[in-house]
Amino acid sequence: MLNHDAIDHLARGLSAGLPRRKAFALLLAALPPILWSPDDVTAKCKKVGKKCDKSKDCCDGASCKGGKSGKCRCKNGRKECNQECVDLENDDRHCGSCNTPCATDGACCDSACQDFQSNPANCGACGNACESNETCCGGLCVDLYIDSANCGSCGRVCGEFEPNCIGFCTGDATCPPGADSCAGGGAISCGGDCVCSQSTEGVTLCGDLSLTTTECGQCESSSDCAAFGAGHFCVATGTAACCGGRSPNVCRKACTD
Prior knowledge:
The protein is an alpha+beta fold. The chain is built from three helices and 14 strands. The chain has a two-stranded antiparallel sheet with strand order 1-2. A hairpin with a 2-residue loop joins strand 7 (135-137) and strand 8. Helix 1 runs antiparallel to helix 2 (20-30). The longest helix is centred in the N-terminal third of the chain and has 12 residues, at 4-15.
């Protein structure tokens, strides 16, 4: 049987620019044992401590040292683990020390096992760091404030009737697409103190005008409004009807049913 976890790990690694040698190791892990055996790969090479004539006789990571009566020894930067020469900084079976394996959903980065699924410093691959406004979800860096496939938390998908994400899923049937109170036509009411507004992401939302926390120049994108709490979004106000053409964009809380 194919190792489906290993296949998923390989696919994520390739999309994140995984080095060829590590990708090859993951490919072997995904194949059923009947198709290959680790012993087949090393059967013809000589392990650490075995007599050798030249370095190419030795297994990967080792070289022949000692002249005509030489033996296979680990190269500089490699450590002998079970008669193999490994790099403890990035070997998934010997991470940091011999016989310290990493879990199938992670890998060895700088001698420490990292969870590629949720670690923002190593998201999907070693060294792939997410931005400050992003979260690592399933090996991908996403913005929980605007990502409709990971809205508010990893894996939370917005549905047909609430397709828009502003930290939580919402949908505004009372505001037709394109309705904009900042377009110069005056307030377009969507109930109470709420008016139809265009977010900086181009989504039509119903926003509350009664809150006094809004101030021109607060945001460039809806992610900048997260400090005000879930449900706030950045209103595109680059016209005279809202901010008078100065320091555009304000944070506004979405009106909900």
